C-alpha cells in the first residue's frame, strides 16, 4: 500500500462480480473452457456448481439446472460432444428440467462435433441463437429459463469461434464469460 492511501481492499462479491447484485436477485457467472488447461466453470449465488476442482466439468457441453424459486441446484451434467453419442441423453436432460428452472450451459474444448439436431433443437427452443453455428472448439456460454422469461437486458449468450489466426492458445480459442444478476420475482 502506498503512503497516504488508507483505502481498504474491495469486498469480495458473489461469484467474484465487481459490484454486488441488487437485493432480491441471484448472482451468476459462467466461463467456457479456453485452451487445453482452462476448464469451464459455472457459479450461481456464490456456489461453484461445475468446475475442474469439483471434478464434474469436462469436454463438451456442461449444464447446470437450478430451481429458480429456491435458487438450489437441481442437477449438473457433462455431455462429451467429441467422443461417444451423448446428444440424445443431453436432450433428455434438458427436457427433464422442471418448469421454473434456469439452465446454465458452457462448452469446454469441443461442444459441436457430435451435437445432433435433437440437441440443437432443444437448446434453440430455450432461446439460443448460436447453438446451430457452433464449430469445432467454439467457446460458448448460454443461460436460459424454462417456464418463464429472463429480462431482455441481460446478456444470455456469447460465442467465440475457433480461428487459428486469432486464437489465444495455439489453435484453441480463449475462454469467454457471462455474468449478471437475475431478479428473483420474475413470472410470479
TrEMBL record:
It comes from the Eukaryota. InterPro entries: FAM3 (IPR039220), ILEI/PANDER_dom (IPR039477). The keyword Signal applies. It holds the Pfam family ILEI. PROSITE patterns: GG_LECTIN. Keywords: Disulfide bond, Lectin, Secreted, Signal. Coiled coil: none annotated. It is found in: Secreted. Residues 59-147 form the ILEI/PANDER domain. Belongs to the FAM3 family. This is Protein FAM3B isoform X4. It comes from Pogona vitticeps (central bearded dragon). The lineage of its organism: Eukaryota, Metazoa, Chordata, Craniata, Vertebrata.
